[in-house]
């Protein structure tokens, strides 16, 4: 055996190949799971069934809800139905708490996958996307501020953005905190809508319905106002037109 061949087969050189092999297996497994999930199962029906199960579990319901929400986020399944359902099942306050925790954990899990396990795949997905290139540059200069602003004024699909931020140099702790704060207004609004839907089947006095209405208008108004401010601030930092 020649020296060059011996060197090529050393553990140090073979380890990166093994790591790449593991990543490809993981990606293939995830892709297969996604295909099976969307072709063989009624995803919307599954979400509705999950909410029914959560309601029956009592104190364990929130735990299942959070776990399902995390999985949904990682697998690109829109969480709007779950967010809406949280308002129906848990009310505004606890629904917002559970969704906020679940969405932040889900976004963090996707971020870590994008940074360490599926970096090449995510890079190919955003390759040539000028908007992401602009955000990437802005993050390198202002870090968590850009993360927070994009959460308040979405310029990317939520699920893909989670993975895409894994490609930037933002610190994990900054990403988590900025995402949690930035997603809060939208979370409260959707949960509030869900709570109203849940109250529709209950008897309420005109005064109670008036209070619901005022609260809804105020929540939407605040969310829209914050979103506009965030969009302008993000445009200013990235050089885009608001």
Give the rounded overall mean pLDDT.
74
Profile the largest sheet.
none
Number of individual domains: 1
N/C terminus separation = 64 Å
Low-confidence stretches: 37-42
Label the structural class: mainly alpha
Q: In DSSP terms, counting alpha (H) and pi (I) runs of 4 or more, how many helices?
A: 11
Which strand-content bin applies to the residues?
A: under 5%
Amount of helix: over 70%
The total strand number stands at 0
H and E order = HHHHHHHHHHH
Could you say which overall geometry the principal axes of the C-alpha atoms support? globular
Radius of gyration: 22 Å
What do you see in this structure?
With 242 residues, the chain is an all-alpha fold. The protein has one domain (42-238). The protein has 11 helices and no strands. The protein has helices at 3-8, 11-40, 43-56, 61-74, 80-117, 119-126, 130-142, 144-152, 158-164, 172-199, 206-238. The radius of gyration is 22 Å and the shape is globular. It starts with a helix and ends with a helix. The model is unreliable at 37-42 (pLDDT under 50).
């Amino acid at each position: 055996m020649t020296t060059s061949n011996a060197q090529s087969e050393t553990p140090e050189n073979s380890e990166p190949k093994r790591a790449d092999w593991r990543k490809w297996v993981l990606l293939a497994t995830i892709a297969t799971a996604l295909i099976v999930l969307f072709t063989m199962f009624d995803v919307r029906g599954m979400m509705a069934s999950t909410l029914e199960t959560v309601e029956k579990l009592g104190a364990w319901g929130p735990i299942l809800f959070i776990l399902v929400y995390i999985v949904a986020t990682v697998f690109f399944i829109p969480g709007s139905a779950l967010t809406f359902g949280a308002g129906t099942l848990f009310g505004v306050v606890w629904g917002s708490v559970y969704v906020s925790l679940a969405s932040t954990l889900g976004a963090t899990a996707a971020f870590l996958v994008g940074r360490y396990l599926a970096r090449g795949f995510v890079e190919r997905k955003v390759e040539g996307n000028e908007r992401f290139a602009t955000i990437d540059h802005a993050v390198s200069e202002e870090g968590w501020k850009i993360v927070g602003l994009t959460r308040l004024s979405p310029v990317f699909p939520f699920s893909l953005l989670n993975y895409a931020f894994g490609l930037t140099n933002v610190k994990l702790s900054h990403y988590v905190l900025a995402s949690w704060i930035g997603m809060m207004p939208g979370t409260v609004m959707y949960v509030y809508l869900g709570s109203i839907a849940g109250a529709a089947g209950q008897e309420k006095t005109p005064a109670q319905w008036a209070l619901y209405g005022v609260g809804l208008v105020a929540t939407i108004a605040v969310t829209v106002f914050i979103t506009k401010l965030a969009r302008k601030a993000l445009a200013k930092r990235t050089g885009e037109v608001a």
